[in-house]
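User: Modeling request: complex.
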Amino acid sequence: MLPLELIRREPDRVRHAARLKGETAPIDEILTLDEEWRAHLHKAETIKAEQNTLSKEFAKTRDEALKERLREMADRSKAELAEAEAVKRKLDDLLLRVPNLFHESVPVGETEADNVVLRDWGSKVELGFAARTHYDLGESLGIMDFERAARVAGSRFAFLIGQGALLERSLAQFMLDVHTREHGYTEVWPPMLVNSGSMTGTAQLPKFAADAFKVEGQDLWLVPTSEVPLTNLHREEILDADRLPLKYTAYTPCFRSEAGAAGKDTRGFIRLHQFSKVEMVKVTTAETSMEEFEKLTADAEDILQRLGLHYQLMAMCTGDMGFAQYKKYDLNAWCPGIGRYLEVSSCSVFNDFQAMRANMRYRPARGAPPRFVHTINGSGLALTRTVDAIIETFQRADGTVTVPEVLRPYMGGLEIIGGR
RNA sequence: GGGGAGGUGGCUGAGUGGUCGAAAGCACCCGCCUGCUAAGCGGGUAGGGGGUGUAAAGCUCCCUCGAGGGUUCGAAUCCCUCCCUUCCCGCCA
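Assistant: Request completed. Predicted assembly structure:
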């Protein structure tokens, strides 16, 4: 969230940023409630201060008239405080609904069409025959099954079977190995259900509850991304500066209701209620966050390059960026079968937006007051869609698929999926 | 799931109604002392918020001893609910 102080001082700046992001921000209500809150609080504290002084006096004098007066003061200060707290609760809820600002380098725009290609690595593969889709190939190879998944779970679920499941697992292991051994991340096995506090910390709540799955009757949510447990790992902590930046990576399933995506991407292994992802999260300082964000993006790109997949690095425009992000890049991998680029990674820097929500701070130096950390995350990569890109890019005329060399050691030396 | 114990500052840990945001120790920081180090001596070191300062500093007040509520003029301390930790039993991948 944004500091209340900033909204007080520069409401127009916040309004403007929200507008360009295509979001709404209840700034006027916030300003009104802010004044109300402080008025009540001030009154409550004034009474309380006098009360505290007189109470000490009573301890000595045991004067009954004073006791009566104190009793009455206690009632008044409590009532005032309750009033202040009620207003503050409303205020806090609204604050959680104010979108983040954005970095000056973010292109201003409204839709996907206004995003900017920053890098274009490799080129569209020349197959020399008509490209088939991953779901067509997957089904005929017997490594993907959507029909049975629909029966077992419902639409937007899938089975990976045999070498398909092996491919997914090998990809996960390959990515984790690269990130931990070469990029300096610490592997984490996080909780895959989290509470509302964590969901609020990373800004899935309160605005986007409809996008996630909640466990019935309990304060537990299925993680929509391991960004949630990883970023919240140090929630409510004051970290030592010399520990930063923290770099975590995790391989987890992700669960999303896809509530707003009815009718979109219904075919194939693209938009599922459950997919898996290797995630990277960094916790750092204001001074280094933009640089660490670029590096994290490069870590994701490295995976695509090693796999030999053509991709584009897109700078998201203000309107396509999202509520919480300060700056965001997407990595889109080319899929010749479906004939379009699929988002296989999304890397974002949040500044202190998440840190304020999660109350995550660090101490710059001994004795210095704590400051909010900056958080960064990105997929490195989304496994399901990477599977798609691999199948479509490395398909062969006979419907089998060449395994990228870097994955072969993880697949028992397998060179061709569906080969014999 | 049943029963017991417990949650206090960076850590250990005292504190059962006011003199307690909190003893003592450790750790850390700043001085002094010492040829250096260690020891010793003195001082300092929680977080959040309001008011007042252009801002920082400062001054001042309020809140916080797992969370929330209650009793009381007054709560770390008494009562209730919840959460978490831990031990024993049961169950279990």
